[in-house]
Each structure stands twice: as structure tokens, then as C-alpha cells.
Write a structure and sequence with these properties.
The chain is an alpha+beta fold. 32% of the residues lie in helices and 18% in strands.
């Protein structure tokens, strides 16, 4: 809880940031307010009056300069990219913020993995250790009123729409398969050790993401202690169940796109690894 200062307490945030900066730590914060001092969706982010885009590509930074709706805050991330934030005229449900974030990624070449409600972003005034440069404010104007969602999102579309949610029958069938395999009783720390070959605290905690296509220096993969909680990587935006991890470690899909033959392959991998262990 000491790492989650009360929303609106600027002095507490500054003290916390200064303490960690002086230690040489990297410092991140969530743009939206959490209902509970917990990482990821467990923090219960529900509404907010800000949206954002994380831009890594130089072309995206150029497009931001020409974008018709000027951000209220632009941060130089320290790695050559930029984080842009827009104030909204009113509080918007977390789902609406996520949708607007994704839509902004299209014209600005933003990172779709950084659009979720619980996203942590680098705090300006701190150090980007990976790049060896500071994270600094490039532009700030809090005097301008916020944008209406309809105005900011006009004409924008999700550049990579997620697949439709599975029907209730598919959800029940997948839950039944988890129970039939006994996989619903295996804790995430245990299956991370068996499937990914990495140690995770038995009580849950952050570890470096073990996925083969995600290299990172800062531990951003949250492995929860209970099977029904699963796991979430805040860096690459992926997570889910034991089957999602098995598929991703093997270079396959996850989430709603993990189905059919690819799901059967992940299921066989889980069975094979656990049988070999026993």
C-alpha cells in the first residue's frame, strides 16, 4: 500500500517518486485511479477522465505533432518515443478509456499493448535505465478544458479490433476442460515453473516476462497465487490461464484466439509436462 499514494495527494506522489529516483529505481504510475492498492485489474480501475497513447516509432512522434487534437501532456519517455495524454471533459468508464486509447493508436502508430486501464507509464522526472536517459515533460497545458469523447474519437477506428467474445457455451466448455484436466487446481507459480522454467513466488508476485518474444529488464509479469486469478504481463499485455501460458511459450496464440487445433496443442503440452513431472 505504501507504493499506492492516495489519488490527488501530489505531495505524497512527489515524495515517493523522489525516494525511488534517488535509489536509482525506475518509477511508473497508472494514469487512472485504482479502487484498491493492488496491481493489474485487481486494483479495480473503473472510471477516469484521461486517455493516452504510448508512441515508440519516430513516424508516430511526427504524426503527433500534426494531430489536430493537441494533447494536454507530452512526455519524452527517454527511449526516443513519447507518451501523450489528453484530458477528457467528464469521467468515462474504463472500457471507454481503453477503446479511445486503442483508436488513438491507429493514426499515431501507438503501442496497442499499452492501452489497458491498469497500464503503468513511466513517470516524468525519473530515469529510464534501459535507455540511460531521463524521462522528461516535453509539453504541458492543464489550463485547456478536456475533450469530449465524441470530439477526440471522431473518425478514429481500432487498428486491430479484438475478436468477438466467445459464446457462453464455449466458456462453459473451456471451464469443464480445465476441471477435467485438473488444471483448474494448479497454482500459477507452479505452472510457471513447469511450463516456462522460471521461478515465481508461491505467494504471487512480479517476475520478468518469460515469453520468448518479450525481452525486458523490469519485472512486469504478475503471477497470482491462486489458479482462478491466473497471470498478467503488464509489459506485453498478455495473460490468462495455464493454457494461455503453454500456448504462448510455444509461440502460439492466447485468449479468445486460442481455440481449435491450437488449443488442443496447448492442452497436450500441459498434460505432457505434468505427466513427465509426476
Amino acid at each position: 500500500p505504501t507504493h499506492y499514494p492516495p489519488a490527488g495527494d501530489q505531495a505524497a506522489l512527489v515524495r515517493l517518486a523522489r525516494t525511488h529516483r534517488e535509489r536509482g529505481d525506475e518509477v511508473f504510475c497508472t494514469p487512472l485511479t485504482r479502487g484498491h492498492p493492488l496491481p493489474g485489474r485487481a486494483g479495480k480501475v473503473t472510471r477516469g477522465a484521461v486517455c493516452w497513447v504510448d508512441i515508440d516509432e519516430p513516424e508516430g512522434v511526427e504524426r503527433l505533432r500534426r494531430f489536430p487534437h493537441l494533447p494536454h501532456l507530452v512526455v519524452r519517455s527517454g527511449s526516443g518515443g513519447a507518451h501523450a495524454y489528453w484530458r477528457l471533459a467528464s469521467n468515462v468508464a474504463a472500457e471507454g478509456v481503453e477503446a479511445l486509447n486503442r483508436n488513438l493508436c491507429g493514426p499515431l502508430l501507438g503501442d496497442l499493448a499499452s492501452t489497458d486501464r491498469a497500464r503503468i507509464m513511466r513517470l516524468p522526472g525519473t530515469h529510464n535505465a534501459k535507455a540511460g536517459r531521463p524521462c522528461l515533460i516535453a509539453y504541458l497545458d492543464l489550463a485547456r478544458p478536456g475533450f469530449a469523447v465524441e470530439e477526440l474519437g471522431a473518425g478514429l477506428e481500432d487498428p486491430d479490433p479484438p475478436p468477438p467474445p466467445p459464446d457462453p457455451g464455449s466458456v462453459r466448455h473451456r471451464a469443464e476442460r480445465l476441471r477435467a484436466d485438473g488444471a483448474d487446481s494448479v497454482s500459477p507459480p507452479e505452472y510457471f515453473r513447469i511450463l516456462a522454467g522460471v521461478d515465481a513466488p508461491d505467494g504471487g508476485g512480479l517476475i520478468p516476462c518469460p515469453l520468448p518474444d518479450h525481452e525486458e529488464q523490469i519485472a512486469s509479469c504478475m503471477v497470482y497465487p491462486e489458479a482462478d486469478q491466473g497471470w498478467t504481463c503488464f509489459g506485453c499485455g498478455r495473460g490468462g490461464t495455464i493454457y494461455d501460458l503453454a500456448s504462448l511459450v510455444d509461440g502460439g496464440p492466447s485468449g479468445r484466439t486460442l481455440r481449435g487445433e491450437e488449443f488442443r496443442r496447448a492442452r497436450a503440452m500441459v498434460r505432457g509436462r505434468f505427466q513427465a513431472r509426476s
